[in-house]
Amino acid sequence: MTRLPERLLLGPGPSNVSPEVLAAMAQPLVGHLDPSFLAVLDEVQANLRLLFGTANAMTLPLSATGSAGMEACLVNLLEPGDRVLVGVAGVFGGRMCDVAARAGAEVSRVDVEPGRILEPGPMAEAIARSRPKVVAFVHAETSTGVLQPVEEIAAAARDAGAFVVLDCVTSLAGLPLAIDDWGIDAVYSGTQKCLACPPGLSPVSFSARAVDAVRARKRPVQSWYLDITLLSGYFGGERKYHHTAPISAVLGLAEALRRVLAEGMEARAARHREAAASLVAALEPLGFSPLVDEPHRLPPLTSLLVPASVRERPGGEAGLRRALLERHGIEVGGGLAALAGRIWRIGLMGENARKENVERLLGALEQEL
Ligand code: PLP
Could you tell me the distance, in angstroms and rounded to a whole number, from the CA of residue 285 to the centre of ligand 1? Predict the structure, then answer.
């Protein structure tokens, strides 16, 4: 067996996984139609409903990563020629545009500067102008560390008759979600962030209105694997074979969900907020400053502008991140796209959202600087 080094994963994901989740995943296999496994799947689907804040029957762990969840939400709801409006506040909003364009949709977008939220006013104007079938945006933009307010934009989209798609990859299990109250029709997440599981599953949920629209499509969904009407054969009541569910991954998710619910979502969210606040307080004296203004900071993922003293060191900021990894076993993330070289993205997600991890990072940084 290849032994990998131990790492403290303080990047944008994956985050560290508890021994309990790893043990759940290491159990001997049963079949994906075995009643013992199907009971676990029932529990997972019920607990995902609780965390998403939904009564949607079509709530399931898709057998693929968060990007497949994004693709599932968009390709089910969009037919070639349909109009979609995407709010782009970072890389993952941009990815939504690419996915929608490949599905043959006519994409319009509202872009904001990295580090800013999408403002409801311009979004509502763009909705009124383009009359889209779908409005899509990201709740927790991991590329910038912005927490996007959802309700006003979702309401404007709903009032215009549009379906609302929301990316909750970095918010599920880190912040309380209420997707039914917010009026969301399709939502996706990932397991490797605040749920503290390995990557590989994408929890998704579709409203009854969205499912009805998919069933009423003129043309079949352009993906066999992600077509929710076919997936419902297995993830709905019948438990008919569709594909071989990744049993061990689902067992890990079941354990992770139990841990989240045992802690309680409010307490877990408070733990994430406190850890993020202590991170900013610890790193500001070293010259790191938050990219995002309060109150739009995303507690699970903090983006910090790297000081000139670090950028101008031999090896630059990337060299310092490499030293943290190689000498201290700590992973932190760099910037993406326009923010590459300018920010660090430090994740305190799931099990890792604790002050002692901030202290360990601070100690390592003080040694290196
Ligand atoms: N959306 C957001 C906000 C993300 O942070 C990520 C991954 O980091 C994705 C989508 C894509 O998820 P994955 O990398 O699991 O495919």
Answer: 31
To test ligand 1's pocket by mutation, which of 15, 74, 170, 253 has the most ligand atoms within 8 angstroms of CB? Answer: 170
pTM given for the model: 0.98
In a domain, residue 41? The reply is: yes
In a shared domain, residues 336 and 313: yes
347: Cβ below 6 Å to ligand 1?
Answer: no
**Total number of domains in the chain:** 2
Cis peptide before 80 (omega within 30 of 0): no
At 85 the three-state DSSP class reads strand
Look at residues 13, 7, 53, 6 and name the one whose alpha carbon lies nearest to residue 300.
Answer: 13
Give the domain range for residue 322: 8-12+264-368
Same domain membership, residue 306 and residue 228: no
Cis peptide before 295 (omega within 30 of 0): yes
CATH assignment at residue 332:
3.90.1150.10
Residue 332 DSSP symbol: E
66 in ligand 1 pocket by Cβ < 6 Å? yes
pLDDT by residue for the chain (369 residues), tens digit each? 999 999 999 999 999 999 999 999 999 999 999 999 999 999 999 999 999 999 999 999 999 999 999 999 999 999 999 999 999 999 999 999 999 999 999 999 999 999 999 999 999 999 999 999 999 999 999 999 999 999 999 999 999 999 999 999 999 999 999 999 999 999 999 999 999 999 999 999 999 999 999 999 999 999 999 999 999 999 998 999 999 999 999 999 999 999 999 999 999 999 999 999 999 999 999 999 999 999 999 999 999 999 999 999 999 999 999 999 999 999 999 999 999 999 999 999 999 999 999 999 999 999 999
Tell whether ligand 1 has an atom less than 6 A from the beta carbon of residue 188.
no
Q: Are 165 and 73 in contact (CB under 8 A)?
A: yes
Q: Is 138's C-beta closer than 6 angstroms to any atom of ligand 1?
A: yes
The residue out of 206, 235, 261 marking a domain boundary is: 261
Atom of ligand 1 at shortest distance to CA of 143? 5
- Same domain for 74 and 104, yes or no, is yes
> Is the preceding omega at residue 14 within 30 degrees of 0, hence cis?
yes
For residue 216, give every residue at least 6 positions away whose Cβ sits within 8 Å of its Cβ, in sequence order, or none. Answer: none
